[in-house]
């Protein structure tokens, strides 16, 4: 199980760096005057992946996201936005432009 988790983390890290380190994203980030809104799910159960408290947002997914952002060749300005609705609505909020991205224990399937 640990090997599977490590491989999943590496794959997510590569995807994030591939998309956000492209020249187009670098130019967009440099031109951005507003913080990117990164949605995180508000969970009331298992909090190892994402844990929202009054002091901020922590967890495995947050650590992975911040490690990837720190590897980018430019400064990415962002803020975490707590999202207290379904995962389908979370993904839709990114697709519709309400949020710029989402970080959490999110699975996207063909359905």
From TrEMBL:
<feature type="signal peptide">
    <location>
        <begin position="1"/>
        <end position="26"/>
    </location>
</feature>
<keyword id="KW-0732">Signal</keyword>
<dbReference type="InterPro" id="IPR015683">
    <property type="entry name" value="Ionotropic_Glu_rcpt"/>
</dbReference>
<protein>
    <recommendedName>
        <fullName>Solute-binding protein family 3/N-terminal domain-containing protein</fullName>
    </recommendedName>
</protein>
């Amino acid at each position: 199980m640990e090997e599977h988790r490590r491989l999943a983390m590496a794959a997510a890290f590569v995807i994030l760096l591939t998309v956000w380190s492209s020249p187009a994203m670098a130019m967009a980030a440099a031109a951005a005057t507003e913080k990117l809104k990164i949605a995180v799910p508000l969970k009331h159960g298992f909090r190892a992946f994402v844990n929202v408290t009054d002091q901020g947002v922590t967890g495995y997914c947050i650590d992975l996201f911040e490690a990837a952002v720190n590897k980018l060749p430019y400064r990415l300005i962002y803020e975490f936005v707590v999202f207290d609705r379904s995962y389908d609505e979370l993904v839709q909020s990114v697709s519709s432009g309400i949020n710029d991205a989402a970080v959490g224990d999110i699975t996207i399937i063909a359905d």
